[in-house]
Design brief:
The protein is built from 3 helices and 8 strands, in the order E-H-E-H-E-E-E-H-E-E-E. By secondary structure, the chain is of the alpha/beta class. It folds into 2 domains: 68 residues, no CATH class; 61 residues, no CATH class. The strands form 2 sheets. The protein has a 4-stranded mixed β-sheet, with helices on one face. The chain has a 4-stranded mixed β-sheet with strand order 5-8-7-6, with helices on one face. A hairpin with a 5-residue loop joins strand 7 and strand 8. The radius of gyration is 17 Å and the shape is elongated.
Protein backbone atom coordinates (compact mmCIF):
# COMPACT_ATOMS: atom_id res chain seq x y z
CA UNK A 1 0.00 0.00 0.00
CA UNK A 2 1.33 3.45 -0.91
CA UNK A 3 2.18 5.79 1.94
CA UNK A 4 0.94 9.33 2.29
CA UNK A 5 3.75 11.85 1.85
CA UNK A 6 4.40 15.22 3.47
CA UNK A 7 7.31 17.41 2.39
CA UNK A 8 9.02 19.41 5.15
CA UNK A 9 11.15 22.51 4.69
CA UNK A 10 13.36 23.83 7.48
CA UNK A 11 13.03 27.60 7.52
CA UNK A 12 13.27 30.75 9.60
CA UNK A 13 9.96 32.34 8.52
CA UNK A 14 7.28 29.65 8.23
CA UNK A 15 4.44 32.06 7.47
CA UNK A 16 6.31 33.71 4.59
CA UNK A 17 7.25 30.37 3.02
CA UNK A 18 3.77 28.91 3.51
CA UNK A 19 2.26 31.91 1.73
CA UNK A 20 4.85 31.75 -1.09
CA UNK A 21 4.40 28.01 -1.73
CA UNK A 22 0.61 28.21 -1.50
CA UNK A 23 0.69 30.72 -4.36
CA UNK A 24 3.44 28.92 -6.29
CA UNK A 25 1.66 25.55 -6.24
CA UNK A 26 -1.95 26.82 -6.26
CA UNK A 27 -2.31 25.16 -2.85
CA UNK A 28 -4.09 26.69 0.13
CA UNK A 29 -2.92 27.59 3.59
CA UNK A 30 -3.86 24.85 6.02
CA UNK A 31 -6.23 26.19 8.66
CA UNK A 32 -5.69 25.30 12.33
CA UNK A 33 -7.70 22.38 13.72
CA UNK A 34 -11.34 22.91 14.70
CA UNK A 35 -11.66 24.82 17.96
CA UNK A 36 -8.45 26.84 17.55
CA UNK A 37 -8.32 30.34 16.14
CA UNK A 38 -4.60 30.11 15.28
CA UNK A 39 -1.85 27.53 14.92
CA UNK A 40 -0.04 29.22 17.83
CA UNK A 41 -3.07 28.52 20.04
CA UNK A 42 -3.16 24.91 18.88
CA UNK A 43 0.55 24.29 19.57
CA UNK A 44 0.37 26.07 22.94
CA UNK A 45 -2.57 23.83 23.88
CA UNK A 46 -0.42 20.82 23.02
CA UNK A 47 2.22 21.97 25.51
CA UNK A 48 4.80 23.41 23.15
CA UNK A 49 6.80 25.73 25.37
CA UNK A 50 8.81 27.72 22.85
CA UNK A 51 7.60 30.99 21.36
CA UNK A 52 5.25 30.30 18.46
CA UNK A 53 4.71 33.09 15.95
CA UNK A 54 1.26 33.85 14.64
CA UNK A 55 0.73 32.78 11.06
CA UNK A 56 0.64 29.66 8.97
CA UNK A 57 3.18 26.85 8.77
CA UNK A 58 1.65 24.42 6.28
CA UNK A 59 -0.06 24.24 2.91
CA UNK A 60 -2.27 21.59 1.36
CA UNK A 61 -3.47 20.67 -2.10
CA UNK A 62 -7.13 21.76 -2.29
CA UNK A 63 -7.83 18.71 -4.49
CA UNK A 64 -6.25 16.36 -1.96
CA UNK A 65 -3.91 14.83 -4.54
CA UNK A 66 -0.49 16.40 -3.88
CA UNK A 67 1.50 16.07 -0.68
CA UNK A 68 1.10 18.49 2.18
CA UNK A 69 4.04 20.77 2.90
CA UNK A 70 5.07 21.79 6.41
CA UNK A 71 7.46 24.66 7.11
CA UNK A 72 9.37 23.84 10.29
CA UNK A 73 10.99 26.78 12.02
CA UNK A 74 14.66 26.29 12.85
CA UNK A 75 17.12 28.84 14.27
CA UNK A 76 19.78 28.51 11.57
CA UNK A 77 19.58 29.74 7.99
CA UNK A 78 20.26 27.67 4.88
CA UNK A 79 23.99 27.38 4.16
CA UNK A 80 24.48 24.74 1.43
CA UNK A 81 22.80 23.58 -1.76
CA UNK A 82 19.72 21.38 -1.32
CA UNK A 83 20.25 17.66 -1.83
CA UNK A 84 16.59 17.43 -2.83
CA UNK A 85 14.47 19.96 -4.68
CA UNK A 86 10.97 20.28 -6.10
CA UNK A 87 10.34 20.19 -9.86
CA UNK A 88 7.13 22.01 -10.68
CA UNK A 89 5.57 21.09 -14.01
CA UNK A 90 3.84 24.15 -15.40
CA UNK A 91 3.38 22.87 -18.96
CA UNK A 92 1.90 19.79 -20.60
CA UNK A 93 5.38 18.52 -21.38
CA UNK A 94 6.76 17.43 -24.71
CA UNK A 95 3.30 17.21 -26.29
CA UNK A 96 3.62 21.00 -26.60
CA UNK A 97 6.29 22.63 -28.82
CA UNK A 98 9.36 23.78 -26.86
CA UNK A 99 8.81 27.41 -27.92
CA UNK A 100 5.35 27.38 -26.30
CA UNK A 101 6.68 25.66 -23.17
CA UNK A 102 9.49 28.21 -22.92
CA UNK A 103 6.96 31.09 -22.92
CA UNK A 104 4.80 29.31 -20.31
CA UNK A 105 7.78 28.55 -18.05
CA UNK A 106 9.19 32.07 -18.39
CA UNK A 107 5.79 33.60 -17.56
CA UNK A 108 5.49 31.42 -14.45
CA UNK A 109 9.06 32.29 -13.43
CA UNK A 110 8.20 35.99 -13.73
CA UNK A 111 5.08 35.49 -11.58
CA UNK A 112 7.09 33.69 -8.90
CA UNK A 113 9.78 36.39 -8.91
CA UNK A 114 6.94 38.80 -8.13
CA UNK A 115 6.10 36.62 -5.11
CA UNK A 116 9.68 36.66 -3.78
CA UNK A 117 11.51 33.93 -5.72
CA UNK A 118 14.88 34.45 -7.38
CA UNK A 119 15.64 33.35 -10.93
CA UNK A 120 18.94 31.44 -10.98
CA UNK A 121 19.19 30.31 -14.60
CA UNK A 122 17.37 28.96 -17.59
CA UNK A 123 18.42 25.45 -18.53
CA UNK A 124 18.21 25.20 -22.31
CA UNK A 125 18.26 21.97 -24.22
CA UNK A 126 21.57 20.64 -22.90
CA UNK A 127 21.83 18.73 -26.15
CA UNK A 128 18.10 17.93 -26.22
CA UNK A 129 16.33 20.10 -28.80
CA UNK A 130 12.95 19.81 -27.03
CA UNK A 131 13.97 20.55 -23.40
CA UNK A 132 13.66 23.76 -21.37
CA UNK A 133 13.53 24.40 -17.62
CA UNK A 134 14.26 27.21 -15.16
CA UNK A 135 16.09 26.92 -11.84
CA UNK A 136 14.88 29.22 -9.07
CA UNK A 137 15.20 29.90 -5.33
CA UNK A 138 12.28 30.39 -2.94
CA UNK A 139 12.40 33.37 -0.52
CA UNK A 140 14.75 31.47 1.85
CA UNK A 141 17.05 30.15 -0.86
CA UNK A 142 15.66 26.64 -1.39
CA UNK A 143 16.23 25.50 -4.97
CA UNK A 144 13.36 24.41 -7.22
CA UNK A 145 12.80 24.05 -10.94
CA UNK A 146 10.03 24.87 -13.38
CA UNK A 147 9.54 22.67 -16.42
Amino acid sequence: MARKLQVTFDCTDSDRLARFWAEALHYRLEEPPHGFATWAAYWADRGLQEEIPDGYDSVIDPGGVGPGIWFQRVPEGKVVKNRLHLDIQVTEGRAVPVEVRRRQIDAEAERLVGLGATLVRAVPSGGLPDYYAVTMLDPEGNEFCLS
